[in-house]
Write a structure and sequence with these properties.
Blueprint (H helix, E strand, L loop, with lengths): L5 E6 L2 E13 L3 E6 L8 E6 L4 E14 L2 E8 L1
Length: about 80
């Protein structure tokens, strides 16, 4: 499902590493977010959206350049 909803993305082992990102799309298995920082493949993260009370752990499966200073991050929900 395509969306442009804001989300919070944080490193599961280091909550001080976090940012506001945008959901490009989301499914029951994972999501694609647009971020301003590079997230390493394999990184365990927590993704949340307070608007719909959504919070789950996920693993970064890819992080590729999206546009100038932006990255497309693929997440697999745990």
């Amino acid at each position: 499902m395509a969306t442009n909803t804001a989300a919070n993305l944080e490193a599961a082992d280091e909550p001080s590493i976090n940012e506001t990102a945008v959901f490009a799309n989301i499914s029951e298995h994972g999501a694609r977010l647009i971020t301003s920082r590079r997230w390493p493949e394999g990184q365990e993260v927590i993704v949340s959206d307070s608007l719909v009370n959504f919070r789950t752990r996920a693993q970064v499966v890819y992080c590729t350049p999206h546009s100038s200073r932006r990255y497309a991050v693929g997440l697999k929900f745990n």
